[in-house]
Amino acid sequence: MASPEFTFELRVCQWTEREWTPGTGRDGSDSAVLVARQLGIRERRWDTLVVECDPEGLAARAVFGTDRLDSDLLHVVRNAPKEWAYYREALPDPGYPWRYVREAIHTADDRGIVETRRAGNRIEIRRNWHYPDWVRRIVAIENKPDLDASAARALGDQLERDVALALADEVWVATAATGDSAERSSAGSRHSSCSGERVEPALFERLPVEVGILTVTPGGNGERTRVDTAWEPSSLAVDDPGTRIVDRPDGGPNDESAARFEYADPEWKRAKRLEIAERAYERGWRSYVDTMRTDCRQFELRDDGDTLPWCAAKGHSPTGRECSGSCPEFTPEPPQWRTRGWPIEGGPGKGLKRLLERQRQRQRDP
Ligand code: SF4
């Protein structure tokens, strides 16, 4: 079965990587862009994530390796002193048992990103490098190719939560532009600024006004995906306290329950934003290839304007779930493909993985 949502998402990621125009930093310099997919926090995952980075900071981040730094490692790496010091005196109280800090120190040492030594029965640490301030803005994009009334209602509720929490600097919805007229207006009401004429304006009214709208003309037949801005988003107050909407009345005539909210303090938001950026740095958007059966002889990467995974047996771009060990049509690469070093050492599947990994690495280089 084809998956329009999955391929739509990959197309949006490629457009974003190619065309996203980030804001400039405080010093007026351009930002570098990292794109990832399916990332967020425990209770919320965004389809496409754009991390706008300080280019020098991004280059400095590279010395810590391509694997992400999780919250425990960040605590160590960001606070490790320049000169040798007992770790309990050098690091701020983590708010959780120190034994986890010791574990993180040993992991950081194994990865070569801090140094440790024994002084009696004390562990001393010092940093190898200063951890840079590399993240400028985080932009979340929700992909919804078929924005019908019920999808808009469900999405509207979810996006209100995103706006209230303000963990991302901007939130967008990307939906398929089905109109062939792309008449645009930069002024006027929200209705008249929609570029895809057949994207029902009434549906947009169900989305929070702070959320931007992108109308997407998917690529194919040698054409790259094109995207128009139908509505500009508002910048969200990421440095202010956020509101977590825990529960809200469903609005039915018999529903007398009250909405429940929680406060999200700015420190928590700052930490989560950095953890999300670290995961984006590690994964990028090509991580789909890590779980797909690239070692199946039916697996291909096809360029129809955008690059997509392709199943020659099924004749469509498969999802990660479809293209897995449980696929009944999985056909392993013949062993001779791997031994003859054709076309790239290790067989075509490994070669495709390496190709995508090289492309992923290029995006980390500002
Ligand atoms: S594992 Fe299945 S879906 Fe994936 S390429 Fe092979 S036949 Fe196609």
UniProtKB/TrEMBL annotation:
Name the residue ranges with Basic and acidic residues bias. 241-250, 354-366
Origin: domain of life: Archaea
InterPro entries, per database record: DUF5787
**Region entry Disordered: which residue ranges?**
234-257, 324-366
Instruction: List the protein's name.
Output: Uncharacterized protein
Q: Whose protein is this, by species?
A: Halomarina oriensis
Output the lineage of the source organism.
Archaea, Methanobacteriati, Methanobacteriota, Stenosarchaea group, Halobacteria
